[in-house]
Amino acid sequence: MTDPVLELAEAMGVLADYHGLDGQRWHTSHDTALALLAAMDCAVSGPREADERLAAVRAGRSARRLPDWHICLPGEAPGWAGPDDLEWQLTCEDGTRHEGRGALPPLPLGLHRLSAGGERMTLLCAPKSLPVPARCWGITAPLAGLRTPEQGGVGDYADLARAARGAARHGAAFLGINPVHAGLDDRTDSFSPYAPTHRRRFSTLHIACRGGVGDAGGPLIDYAGAVPARQARLRAAFDAAGDDPAFAAFRRREGQPLADFALHQALSAHHGPFWTDWPAALHDPAGAAARAAAGQMADAVAFHAWMQWRAETQLADAADAARGAGMARGLYLDLAVGTHPAGAETWQDRASFAYGASLGAPPDPFAPEGQAWNLAPFNPQALVAQGFAALAETLRKQLQFAGVLRIDHVLGFERAFWVPLSGGAPGGYVRMPRDAMLAVARIEAARAGAVVIGEDLGVVPEGLQQALAASGILGCRLAMFERHYHGDGSFKRPHEYDSCAIASFGTHDLPSFRGWRAGVDIDARAALHRLDGPAADEARARRGGDVAAFDAAVGAPSGMADDSAATDAMHRFLGQSAARLVAVQAEDVFGMTVQANLPGTVNEHPNWRHRLPLAPDAWEFSGDLARTGQILKETGRQETTT
Asked: Is residue 122 a contact partner of residue 148, using CB atoms and an 8 Å limit?
């Protein structure tokens, strides 16, 4: 007997089942389906209401004469999907309007809206594929950790510019950093750049202040001390600034979205960072209470808008410095997979997100209970209905400054795992409009002349990597995981790497190269009782075998966890790989053993608090960075603007 709730959920995009990392088949439960339907604003009380809603959904779809969206090529007339006698009205992205019947005119690059017969559709005019980038290399580094223990404080956008100039001197084509979205900076218990309050605004934590903002120093960043000190200096600078025509122009250009964000930040100072905890009257940014607050808090609103202006100005300066120093690709920015469910982005743009569910991951050997990341997912129904505007704007904002943009967990373009926030249901996958979302990414990247990377690690849906490659979007290949899993388990040789990819040894969620060789990640999990004694011993023994196998694959001297020759051999191996781009990590170049972030922890591990041992001004003169650059140059990786 069929379950109407499950049928409705499937019609709304919830997958009936899926295979986990271990190959086990999981079925979406009735309770999960109910919870995910509610998160989509399609709540039903039971089978009878589900039957009625399903009938209405099917009737509505069968009555449509136009598809919800259609992909076409710039400069070519879109294939007409409607009846020949149907009159249409076309609004191009730039506001130009056309009317006609039957065939449509050729369209420019962009997202355009077509209305016909009382229906609307989105025309995604995108290049078929993005250009293949030249073989080059770059370096990734934690922006917050750019200041040394002696300097103290939090790395800022001026430090980023200095590091970019230094890395460019050694042949790096890009400098990659963690996300710089607006964050929950008044929370001192967690400063993860992957849990932003708004992905279309920028972090004020990294604004450079005159005189700098240091702390007592030490090997770990003291956010609790540095954040208030920076905020006080910025407030003093704002008070002393007076009228600035450039700032006024910025506010006019950004309009109501900036005003609403600044109001959210001002209200957060009084009511806390999460709008769900505010008085109910303030839950609607367009409501009377919020509008009254905007007038009463005009000075605070102006200050938060000013900080956004300073952040964007300094980030643009860093991007210019990178390009000006010879970096062909400039800055490599990172787009977080989601936004905080009670942050500024969901307050401003309630309609684009699902509520009552978090992005996450299904159970696997590393997390047997599954994962909930406390990040709000895009609602696919709303995304389509709004012409993909939220996704386009989010990408466009980052691509103002990025020559390379990494999309975290791009698997979510195919399907996203939603975990109900209450009731204890295990979660399920929701289908996303993959081809349309990839077309949006191609449109925005083509505008900016940028390279796009999709982080495609984990349980990859069938066909996604082929779709990414067809779009010219690079995948991610991590040397520590690139093995012949269906064969003898040996590490892949350089020529076996995918060419449409960026290759690196690891990521911010994994140990550094030397840390991996020494098993520091195993020690950390054992210290937190995530591994018992026998399991930890087994993991260490297995790691020893992995290190020996990797050494043999790359020609590194074995058994020397602190030997820079092993790191050089690893970098040469990456440079020789077929991958178009190679990213070396600053922690590896400078000989660190730390792990920037230990997934599944907040305060148990010093996540996002480690500093680099070399100041940005010293990168230009670094022997380690010079040697790395020479190794990669010898493998044929050199792309500069000069």
From this structure: no
Residue 118, phi-psi category: left (phi > 0), alpha (psi -120 to 50), beta (remainder): left
User: DSSP letters of 347-397?
Assistant: HH-GGGB-SSEEEEE--BTTBTT-EE---BPB-HHHHHHTTTHHHHHHHHH
Residue 188: predicted pLDDT: 46
Tens digits of residue pLDDT in 428-455 = 999 999 999 999 999 999 999 999 999 9
In angstroms, the CA 379 to CA 355 distance is: 9
| pTM: predicted TM-score of the whole model, two decimal places | 0.96
DSSP assignment of 525-555: HHHTTSS-HHHHHHHHHHHHHHHHHHHHHHT
SS3 570: helix
The beta-strand segments (E) located in 12-80 are 17-19, 25-27, 69-72
Residue with tokens 């073989």: 135
**Encoded tokens for 435:** 């081809």
Q: Which of 350, 319, 445, 471 is nearest to 392 (CA)?
A: 445
- Region of poorest pLDDT, from 204-218, 332-346, 601-615: 204-218
Concatenated DSSP letters of 199-244: EEEE-STT---TT----S--SB--HHHHHHHHHHHHHHHHHHH---
Yes or no: say if 14 and 30 are a contact pair by the CB < 8 Å rule.
no
φ, ψ of residue 418 in degrees (nearest 5): -105, 135
